[in-house]
Design a protein that fits this description.
The chain is α/β, with parallel strands linked by helices. Helices cover about 45% and strands about 20% of the residues. It has helices at about 10-25, 45-50, 55, 70-80, 100-110, 135-140, 165-170, 190-200, 225-245, 255-275, 280-305, 310-320, and strands spanning about 1-10, 35-40, 60-65, 85-90, 95, 115-125, 150, 160-165, 205-215.
C-alpha cells in the first residue's frame, strides 16, 4: 500500500489543482493507496478544500493538522500517520501525471531493494519564461530529468516534489532533519539530500524512475532574479552546513572567501571584456550568491560551531526576504 503525502501551508488554491490531478489517476485494481494532506499550520481554506474532495475518495483521503511549522515537521508527521509501507511525497503545487502512482508502485515492485524512488518533473510556467532563465535556474525550480531510462543505485539528487520512500527506511534513519526544509518564508531546503546521505551508507538504494512524472507549477514571484539570488544564497549555506553535519570536509574561511572573490571577479571581468550574455550574467550572479552563502555559513560555523546553526540560517533567510 502507498500513502500519498501532500504537505501544505497556506496554498489552498494550488492544493486544489494537485488534488484535481490525482483524481485523474489511472491505477491497476490491485494497487492500494491513501491520500494524506498534512496541513502545516495553515490559516487559509486548506481544510475546506480537502473536505470538498471527500466524496471523491471517501476514507482514502485523510486531513491531518500539524501545528509545528516547517516542511520537515509535516513530512515526519506524514511518516507517522501513513498506513502504507511506502510514503510518496508530492508538493502541493504539482500536477501529477495520470500514471504517476502506477509508475511509483511498479518501480518498487521491479526493484525490490529500492529504499527511495524519485521521478521526473517538468515546469509549468505562468507565462513565457524570461530569456535569462538558465538550466541552473530551472534546476532550482525543481525541474529534474535524468533521461528516459531508469537508474538503479543513482548517487544523484532526487527532488522532494516527487519523492517516495519505504516507511521502514524513513523510521530507520529517524525521518527528515527538522533543522532543514522550508519554514514560512524561509528558502532553506536540502532535507531530501540529507535523508539520502543517511540512507545510502546503510545500504539503501535510490532509484530514478522516469515514468513517474509530475509537473511543477511555477509561481510568478519565482520568475524574478531577486528570488533566485535568495535561493542560491540559501543553497550555498545548505551545502556547507550539511557537509559539516555529516562529517565531510568543508572549506576554510579563507578558502570560502577566495572562492567568493573569484566568483565576483568573474562577473566584472566579463563585463569589462564585453562577452557576457544576459543568461550568462545571471548565472554568474547566482554562483556568486551561492559562494557568498557558503562563506556566510563557514564564518558562522567558525564563530559558533554547531550551536544555533539552524536558528541562524532561518533568521538570515527571513532577513533576505524582508
Amino acid at each position: 500500500m502507498i500513502s500519498v503525502a501532500i504537505c501544505t501551508h497556506n496554498n489552498a488554491a494550488k492544493l486544489a489543482v494537485a488534488l484535481e490531478s490525482l483524481k485523474g489517476m489511472v491505477c491497476p485494481p490491485a494497487l492500494e493507496y491513501e491520500i494524506l494532506v498534512i496541513d502545516n499550520n495553515s490559516s487559509d481554506e486548506t481544510k475546506k478544500v480537502v473536505e470538498e474532495y471527500g466524496p471523491v475518495w471517501g476514507s482514502r483521503l485523510r486531513y491531518v493538522f500539524e501545528p509545528n511549522q516547517g516542511l520537515s515537521h509535516a513530512r515526519n508527521r506524514a511518516m507517522k500517520e501513513a498506513v502504507g509501507d511506502i510514503v510518496s511525497y508530492i508538493d502541493d503545487d504539482i500536477k501529477a501525471d495520470a500514471h504517476w502512482l502506477s509508475a511509483v508502485a511498479a518501480a518498487f515492485e521491479n526493484y525490490a531493494d529500492a529504499a527511495v524512488v524519485g521521478g521526473r518533473s517538468y515546469l509549468l510556467f505562468p507565462s513565457a519564461p524570461p530569456v535569462w532563465l538558465s538550466e541552473k535556474c530551472q534546476l532550482l525550480l525543481s525541474r529534474l530529468d535524468y533521461g528516459d531510462q531508469a537508474i538503479v543505485g543513482t548517487d544523484r539528487d532526487l527532488f522532494g516534489l516527487n519523492f517516495s520512500v519505504r516507511k521502514d527506511w524513513l523510521q530507520r534513519v529517524g525521518g527528515f532533519n527538522t533543522s532543514l526544509g522550508r519554514c514560512g518564508r524561509s528558502l532553506i531546503s536540502g532535507e531530501e539530500s540529507d535523508l539520502l546521505k543517511r540512507i545510502r551508507p546503510l545500504g539503501g538504494i535510490a532509484v530514478y524512475e522516469p515514468a513517474a512524472v509530475v509537473g511543477h507549477i511555477v509561481s510568478p514571484e519565482r520568475m524574478r532574479i531577486r528570488w533566485f539570488l535568495r535561493r542560491f544564497f540559501c543553497a550555498g549555506k545548505e551545502n556547507v552546513t550539511m557537509d559539516w553535519k555529516n562529517g565531510l570536509a568543508v572549506p576554510s574561511v579563507s578558502q570560502a572567501a577566495i572562492h567568493t572573490v573569484r566568483c565576483t571577479g568573474s562577473i566584472f571581468k566579463s563585463i569589462v571584456l564585453g562577452d557576457l550574455s544576459e543568461k550568462t550574467l545571471v548565472d554568474k550572479l547566482l554562483m556568486a550568491a551561492a559562494a557568498l552563502g557558503g562563506l556566510d555559513a563557514r564564518v558562522r560555523l567558525a564563530l559558533g560551531g554547531r550551536r544555533g546553526e539552524c536558528v541562524q540560517n532561518r533568521a538570515e533567510s527571513r532577513e533576505l526576504s524582508a
